[in-house]
């Protein structure tokens, strides 16, 4: 009975049948592998959005208080990615004009050009509200207007800065949020503001600097903002809380 | 024949080669599973494996269900269903095949049950095995009902309204039962419960199936009538000349699995590519309950509950307690009948003609199930006067009892000789004949013609035939090769297997380039085809190597 069986021929058939089953199994596996990973969220390019207040009417640049300690935050470029918008002033409360400067990323020494301030006096700037050190947000990462002093771990005081109470990182908003003190090694990403001088409205259209903390890229990892506006929310004055 | 055993022996002694290593280390050859006689794996033996087909379908349901569980959100059922359909890669394919896998499972459970009913498999010593099987049918339909309702589409809300209505009609415990089953009225509590019950029922099916299968192994298969001589108790004791479980049964089960899953994937993919499929067989959920399109859809239940749905329309059930009474008469009573049949039909004869009452009631159950389902599909919600109900339901009962008793008498007198194959064939002809006659001569005929387009009928026919094809033992699988000497491999086998393998890989290559969201159903057709092709290749291989 066992004689005359050609093992080679039989193995060849076995191989072909196995190959056919492997094709089916492989395709099934491919389907499952793709299904298990949900579709990526995000946008393909930076959207152009108008800043509005909670009632939906446009936020006017002239209504932004100079040196106001209250945190005004809006999401950009995706949902729940907070940014702070501030109008910078000197110690006597006069707005100061911010010009574009070269900012260095201490981590790798690379440089980029920050955006100039906008508004009538060129004093309005906006930065990511997520600390680049370990991702702390408001009220830990907050704006210290000129006259309110922040104290770093080393005991040195700064004023007119963004300072994070988690681990003491300090950023200079007049110079593109460049790093004043560590432990952070990256400046805060800066949001590009566009001011319409006829209507006094403000638009956001781009970002520059390091990638937003915790993201693979600024444009993915979250749901896009629907519509053409993003709402500015007043989270209150952290120094009176 | 002995060659396999010798090869096995040699492999175990020498331990050479990857295949031998796997067999030895996984102890595939020592699995505590019964060997089966050769006739069960031969061409006509698929009737012995209806339970295996259900197991494959159930496994497929568990796997796809677990994937869907990663995306489904019972707090927003409809949006999360749409997200699975429109955004998740191959989400459409997984959801549609999960639905059709459940359909296949329900049909196969019916096929399995009625097959074992007519051959008398519930008799000694398999009474408990049968009872657990009937409970598994109820659980399968229950899991189907809850799963079907999870999508949050208009049909899902219809189904839960009806279910809650019937439950709350039950005296004394109705309100309590309705809140246990359907929550306190908020959508969130409803769908959280539905998801829970769906999974609980699937888990219970797995649990009971385990015991059902254990009993099946312990009681052994009901042997062919040639061996049992139509006398209970009958068993299939293991003998030395039976082939080992590995590889004979394993390869056979792999073949059945490939074919079953192949059809489960292929059919809904095909139906899903046809535009405007009737909502009862569409592999996708219906419109949102709040949309304008929802108003145009009759309050259909899932098709496997259509028979109950139609019964509620009967004249005698139009009173306040009607829906409950209809469910008791057409749902609960048949269920109880099937549960206790081992104790009603206690004779030791397994021949269907020796048990004319049992056989007649079985045929009438099938005919009623089909008629009521079709009736519910074509005339949803139309009240039927009691005389009309009698006119439709009584004739098949009378005809069946008359015919079966007549044939039985002739057979007992020895005037009628019936061969094994012709019984099955004539059985199907008889049942389809009854159903077709009633549809054609029933007064709903004109309605069917005017309200049902030829195209829709064609689609229904194609998909129905296909589902039926799957159910009837995954019918024609391999070309019937002549029974040549086993050690000669015919050239045709090389060509057939070669072509099948080649086409499988071509389809695999094409599929990899497809878009997982927009072309999910096309990939599904390719995947189903590849699985069926490999199943057929394996069938041909088994045929020429094992002579099965």
Provide a descriptive summary of the structure in words.
The complex is a heterodimer of chains A (241) and B (548). Chain A contains one helix and 16 strands. Chain A is of the alpha+beta class and 241 residues long. Chain A folds into two domains: 37 residues; 186 residues, Rieske Iron-sulfur Protein, CATH 2.102.10. Chain A has an eight-stranded mixed sheet with strand order 15-1-14-13-6-3-2-16, with no helix packed on it. Chain A has a four-stranded antiparallel sheet with strand order 7-10-11-12, with no helix packed on it. In chain A, a hairpin with a 5-residue loop joins strand 11 and strand 12. The termini of chain A are far apart. The mean pLDDT of chain A is 85. With 548 residues, chain B is mostly helical. The longest helix of chain B is centred in the middle third of the chain and has 33 residues. Chain B has 20 helices and no strands. The N and C termini of chain B lie close together (11 Å). Chain B has one domain: Cytochrome Bc1 Complex, Chain C, CATH 1.20.810. The interface between A and B is large, with 30 and 46 residues.
What is shown here, in short?
Chain A has 241 residues and is α+β, with helices and mostly antiparallel strands. Chain A has one helix spanning 7-36, and strands spanning 49-52, 72-75, 82-87, 102-104, 111-113, 124-128, 141-144, 150-151, 157-158, 161-164, 170-172, 178-181, 190-196, 201-208, 229-231, 233-234.
Secondary structure elements and pairings:
The complex is a heterodimer of chains A (241) and B (548).
Chain A: H1 7-36, E1 49-52, E2 72-75, E3 82-87, E4 102-104, E5 111-113, E6 124-128, E7 141-144, E8 150-151, E9 157-158, E10 161-164, E11 170-172, E12 178-181, E13 190-196, E14 201-208, E15 229-231, E16 233-234
Parallel strand pairs in A: 1-15
Antiparallel strand pairs in A: 1-14, 2-3, 2-16, 3-6, 4-5, 6-13, 7-10, 8-9, 10-11, 11-12, 13-14
Chain B: H1 2-14, H2 18-26, H3 50-69, H4 77-86, H5 91-118, H6 127-148, H7 154-169, H8 174-182, H9 187-219, H10 225-228, H11 245-273, H12 306-311, H13 322-344, H14 356-378, H15 386-412, H16 420-441, H17 445-451, H18 454-471, H19 491-512, H20 520-546
């Amino acid at each position: 009975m066992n004689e005359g069986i050609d093992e080679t021929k039989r193995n060849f058939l076995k191989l072909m049948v196995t190959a056919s089953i492997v094709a089916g199994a492989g395709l099934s596996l491919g389907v499952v592998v793709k299904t298990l990973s949900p579709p990526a969220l995000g946008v393909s390019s930076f959207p152009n959005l108008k800043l509005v207040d909670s009632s939906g009417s446009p936020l006017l640049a002239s209504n932004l208080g100079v040196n106001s300690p209250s945190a005004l935050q809006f999401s950009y470029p995706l949902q729940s990615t907070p940014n702070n918008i501030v109008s910078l002033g000197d110690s006597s409360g006069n707005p100061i004009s911010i010009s574009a400067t070269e900012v260095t990323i201490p981590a790798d020494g690379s440089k980029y050009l920050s955006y100039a301030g906008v508004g009538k006096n060129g004093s309005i700037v906006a930065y990511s509200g997520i600390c680049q050190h370990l991702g702390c947000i408001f009220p830990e990462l907050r704006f210290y207007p000129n006259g309110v002093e922040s104290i770093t771990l080393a005991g040195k005081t700064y004023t007119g800065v963004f300072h994070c109470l988690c681990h003491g990182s300090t950023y200079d908003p007049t110079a593109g949020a460049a790093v004043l003190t560590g432990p952070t090694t990256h400046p805060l990403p800066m949001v590009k503001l566009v001011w319409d001088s006829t209507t006094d409205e403000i638009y956001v259209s781009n970002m520059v600097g390091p990638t937003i903390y915790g993201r693979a890229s600024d444009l993915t990892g979250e749901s896009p903002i629907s519509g053409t506006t993003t709402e500015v929310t007043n989270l209150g004055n952290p120094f009176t809380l | 024949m002995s060659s396999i055993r010798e090869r096995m022996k040699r492999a175990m002694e020498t331990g050479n080669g990857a295949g031998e290593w796997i067999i030895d280390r996984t102890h595939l050859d020592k699995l505590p599973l019964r060997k089966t006689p050769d006739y069960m794996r031969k061409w006509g033996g698929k009737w012995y494996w209806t339970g295996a087909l259900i197991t494959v379908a159930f496994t497929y349901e568990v796997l796809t269900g677990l994937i869907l569980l990663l995306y489904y959100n019972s707090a927003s059922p409809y949006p999360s269903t749409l997200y699975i359909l429109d955004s998740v890669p191959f989400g459409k394919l997984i959801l549609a095949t999960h639905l059709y896998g459940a359909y296949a499972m329900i049909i196969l459970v019916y096929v399995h049950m009625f097959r074992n009913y007519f051959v008398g498999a519930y008799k000694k010593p398999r009474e408990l095995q049968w009872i657990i099987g009937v409970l598994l049918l109820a659980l399968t339909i229950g899991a189907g009902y809850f799963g079907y309702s999870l999508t949050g589409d208009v049909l899902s809300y219809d189904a839960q309204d009806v279910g809650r209505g019937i439950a709350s009609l039950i005296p004394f415990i109705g309100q309590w039962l309705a809140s246990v089953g359907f929550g306190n009225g908020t959508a969130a509590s409803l769908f959280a419960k539905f998801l829970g019950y769906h999974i609980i029922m699937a888990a219970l099916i797995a649990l009971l199936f385990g015991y059902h299968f254990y009993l099946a192994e312990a009681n052994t298969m009901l042997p062919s009538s040639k061996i049992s001589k139509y006398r209970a108790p009958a068993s299939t004791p293991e003998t030395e000349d039976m082939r080992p479980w590995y590889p004979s049964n394993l390869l056979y089960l792999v073949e059945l699995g490939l074919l079953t899953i192949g059809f489960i994937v292929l059919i809904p993919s095909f139906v899903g590519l046809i535009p405007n499929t009737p909502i009862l067989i569409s592999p996708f959920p219906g419109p949102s309950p709040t949309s304008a399109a929802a108003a145009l859809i009759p309050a259909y239940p899932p098709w496997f509950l259509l028979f109950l749905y139609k019964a509620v329309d009967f004249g005698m059930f139009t009173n306040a307690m009607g829906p409950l009474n209809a469910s008791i008469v057409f749902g609960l009573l048949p269920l109880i009948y099937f549960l206790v049949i081992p104790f009603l039909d206690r004779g030791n004869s397994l021949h269907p003609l020796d048990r004319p009452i049992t056989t007649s009631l079985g045929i009438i159950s099938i005919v009623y199930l089909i008629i009521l389902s079709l009736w519910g599909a074509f005339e949803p919600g139309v009240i039927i006067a009691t005389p009309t109900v009698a006119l439709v339901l009584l004739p098949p009962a009378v005809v069946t009892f008359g015919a079966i008793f007549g044939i039985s008498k002739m057979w007992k007198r020895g005037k009628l000789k019936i061969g094994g194959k012709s019984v099955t064939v004539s059985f199907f002809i008889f049942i389809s004949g009854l159903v077709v006659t009633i549809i054609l001569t029933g007064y709903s005929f004109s309605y069917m013609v005017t309200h049902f387009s030829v195209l829709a009928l064609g689609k229904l026919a194609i998909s129905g035939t296909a589902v039926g094809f799957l159910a009837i033992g995954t019918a024609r699988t391999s070309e019937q090769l002549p029974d040549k000497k086993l050690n000669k491999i015919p050239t045709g086998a090389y060509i057939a297997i070669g072509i099948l393998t080649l086409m499988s890989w071509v389809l695999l290559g094409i599929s990899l380039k497809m878009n997982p969201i927009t072309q999910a159903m096309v990939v599904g057709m390719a995947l189903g085809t590849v699985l069926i092709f490999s199943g057929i290749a394996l069938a041909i291989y088994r045929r020429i190597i094992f002579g099965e």
